[in-house]
Design goal:
Shape: elongated
Helix content: 25-40%
Largest sheet: 2 strands, antiparallel
Number of helices: 4
Strand order of the largest sheet: 1-2
Structural class: mainly alpha
Distance between the termini: 104 Å
Order of helices and strands: HEEHHH
């Protein structure tokens, strides 16, 4: 076989395709009328803004009624609740309360009247006394 232009067994030369000239529609090729216009955003409204939250300062500066009807600040109510939880034995509440006391400068240091170091007198012990008090009994079958 020869590659002559008149050979009927050869394929005709393919026509050059211009993708911009054709209005092909298919996978990843949407119709022209539904494509985004040039210079326009696909999301003109943009990302929605986050809702405005309430600051912690606003919450703590408010007032609250106590159990007996008296009005106290929310800061006081928080500290009272924290102290009550600490008295009930909640370790987390106690550590938070201690940190709060330390940060606020309300922690007091008092000198202790009790000594912090306990002196234990030395006692000389013989091996027999030690084995009698702490060792295994002589009648132990595990030996």
């Amino acid at each position: 076989m020869t590659d002559s232009p008149n050979d009927p067994h050869t394929d005709p030369p393919s026509e050059p395709r211009h993708p911009a000239d054709h209005n092909d529609v298919g996978y990843k090729k949407p119709p022209k009328h539904s494509q985004f216009r040039k210079g326009r955003s696909g999301n003109p409204g943009g990302r929605p803004k986050a809702p405005i939250g309430i600051s912690i300062k606003e919450i703590l500066d408010g007032d609250q009624r106590g159990k007996n009807g008296e009005v106290i600040s929310r800061r006081e109510a928080y500290v009272i609740a924290l102290v009550n939880e600490a008295f009930r034995g909640n370790q987390k509440a106690f550590s938070k309360f201690m940190k709060l006391m330390h940060r606020s400068g309300l922690m007091r240091r008092e000198k202790s009247t009790n000594p912090t170091v306990v002196h234990v007198p030395m006692r000389s012990v013989t091996m027999e006394d030690f084995m009698r008090d702490f060792g295994r009994p002589h009648s132990d079958p595990t030996k």
